[in-house]
Amino acid sequence: MKKINIVLLRKDLRINDNPALVNASDLPTVVVFPAEARPPKGSAARVWLGHSLASLNQQLSGKLYLAAQPMATFIRETAAQFNIQGLYMAHGLSAEDKAFEQTLMPLCQQLNIELHFTDANLLWDLQTLQKADQSAYKVFSAFYRHAQKQPLLKQASQLNNIELLSLPGGALETEFVPEMTSVWGKKIIENWPGSAPGEPSAQQRWRRLCQQAFNNYQQGRNIPSQINTSLLSAAIEWGELSVRQMHHDLCQLSPSDDIEHFKSELAWRAFSHYLLRDYPHMDRENINPKFNHFPWLDNPLLLHKWQQGLTGIPIVDAGMRELWHTGYMHNRVRMITASLLVKNLLIPWQHGCKWFEQTLFDASPANNSASWQWVAGSGMDAAPYFRIFNPVTQSERFDKNTDYLCKWLPQLEKLPPKYRHAPWQAPNNVLQSCDFVLARDYPHPIVDLKDSRQNALSAYQNLKQLGKLQ
Ligand SMILES: Cc1cc2nc3c(=O)[nH]c(=O)nc-3n(C[C@H](O)[C@H](O)[C@H](O)COP(=O)(O)OP(=O)(O)OC[C@H]3O[C@@H](n4cnc5c(N)ncnc54)[C@H](O)[C@@H]3O)c2cc1C
Fold first, then answer.
1. 364 Cα nearest atom in ligand 1
2. Helix (H, G, I), strand (E, B) or coil at 85
3. What pLDDT, on a 0 to 100 scale, did the predictor assign at position 470?
4. Alpha helices in 15-139, H assignment, sequence order
5. Domain boundaries, the chain
6. Contact 353, 319 (CB under 8 A)
7. Per residue in 415-437, pLDDT tens?
8. Which pLDDT value is given to residue 384?
């Protein structure tokens, strides 16, 4: 029987710096994407995945095998025709990924296939990042200080030659990802302002950013009406770009505050994955269990209005619309919309986290839950609960000229700019002179920002007094 290797790709949908591909390349290789690795919940992420796989398939001259059957079945079927020497794959980072890996171990043992795991999507070996007393870091700054002194995980060597083996079946069908052809799936990919899914476009965008030396990243990254960030989060999440390559490239540029800041954002990603390793259920369970006593309010109507961008608070509604129309939301606005949900509406952060998981191209089991818990105050190194964003002040500060508001809520253009951040504050004569009618042109706010802030603080104070929170 012919000797072959199998490479399973999941969140390392790339050719460059892909240790599994390099290590397997001494024998004819079947490259497989297992259907089990589709994100179980995220619709937008599935749209991205479909396009990304199509791109990877092109890079592999149409030889990517899409295993619709369970992986165990696929391996057994292939082992009946070939002598499989090795199965190569990168460690996954989520609880689902780990469960999947567990199922392969006994099977490979039984069939005498060597199972080789690599690390493809991390900057550092997380095991080495612990305090002197062997406990895990709880604060990002200390984590990052320590990490910067550790060696980075090595990039894979260049993939020079690999003989790709094509198996019958496994052709890439769009039905594999039905969301790709849905009206919404087509719309978000068309409206998405970043580079197209797949390694070649991500590399191209990355090279351009490096040439521009991330000019104005540090200041500009907070302005949602402008593109000052990389827009590479989905490419990073799907492993189309290697974070190690990114870090290496950044180190070749002349040092600057912008570049250092960008590096620190990649480190935040590492910190989220570090948390996910220790809290595999952090997409639903509070990292700080003291928040289990928090008196959240389950209000489906308010949740629905938040999801639809109908809260009557412009910066929040603009963000929720950006998300629905493009599969993306600017980071500053993610923080503002999340804060309104958990702090002013007191809706459990898990609901917001789930909605983001459904609608973000970059939906990440690590970054999404860590960020939601950061906003809610229940996470590690989280924003203190009593720090509550005022969405109007945030809007005035970061969308001064209201370009972002007017892009997503064009009806606000009728108002003088200073009232666009909070139309309910406009005096009646102003509203009348612009023919702007609250409730007709734009909703009344669903919550009083001052009162709800006070409610949130009282709930927090009560818990503190009961000794349930620090
Ligand atoms: C409530 C909430 C939910 C979020 N959900 C996600 C998510 O599901 N997936 C996701 O990748 N990011 C998430 N983020 C973090 C951040 O908003 C996005 O990574 C960023 O907006 C992506 O745009 P960019 O690639 O242009 O970012 P850039 O500013 O160019 O950042 C470069 C890269 O650094 C990483 N990064 C940046 N900010 C963070 C952060 N705060 N935490 C961890 N990694 C970060 C990302 O990989 C990003 O692509 C969330 C933030 C909040 C407040």
1. 8
2. strand
3. 56
4. 19-24, 43-59, 71-81, 95-110
5. 3-120, 289-465
6. no
7. 999 999 999 999 999 999 999 99
8. 78
Q: Which H or E run contains 283?
A: none
What is the pLDDT averaged over residues 259-272?
A: 97
Instruction: Report the candidate in 405, 185, 227 with the shortest Cα–Cα distance to residue 312.
Output: 405
Dump the DSSP string for 71-82: HHHHHHHHHHHS
Residue 4, CA distances (Å) to 24, 31, 114 in order: 9, 11, 12
Of ligand 1's listed atoms, the one at least distance from the Cα of 362 is 9
Q: Which atom number of ligand 1 is nearest to the Cα of residue 338?
A: 1
C-alpha to C-alpha distance for 294 and 279, rounded to whole angstroms: 20
Give the lowest-confidence range in 3-17, 32-46, 150-164. Answer: 32-46
At residue 468, the pLDDT reads: 63
Q: Which candidate, 80, 86, 94, 76, places its Cα nearest to that of 30?
A: 86
Q: Ligand 1 centroid to 332 CA: how many Å?
A: 10
Residue 105, class by beta-carbon neighbours within 10 Å (0-12 exposed, 13-18 middle, 19+ buried)?
Answer: exposed
Closest Cα to atom 4, ligand 1: which residue? 368
> Which CATH entry fits the domain spanning 289-465: 2.30.110.10, 1.10.630.10, 3.10.20.30, 1.10.579.10?
1.10.579.10
Length of the chain: 470
pLDDT tens digits for 48-99?
Answer: 999 999 999 999 999 999 998 999 999 999 999 999 999 999 998 888 888 8
Residue 174: pLDDT over 90: no
Ligand 1: which of 232, 367, 378, 389 to mutate, most ligand atoms within 8 Å of CB?
367
Q: If you measure from the C-alpha of residue 164 to the centroid of ligand 1, how many angstroms do you get, rounded to a whole number?
A: 35
Which residues have C-beta atoms less than 6 Å from ligand 1?
A: 221, 229-233, 236-237, 265-266, 268-269, 272, 331, 334-335, 338, 356, 360, 362-364, 367-368, 371-372, 375
Domain 3-120 architecture: 3-Layer(aba) Sandwich (3.40)
Determine the atom of ligand 1 nearest the C-alpha atom of 370.
42
Look at residue 106 and tell me whether its pLDDT is greater than 80: yes
Mutate to test the pocket of ligand 1, among 268, 362, 368 (most ligand atoms within 8 A of CB): 362
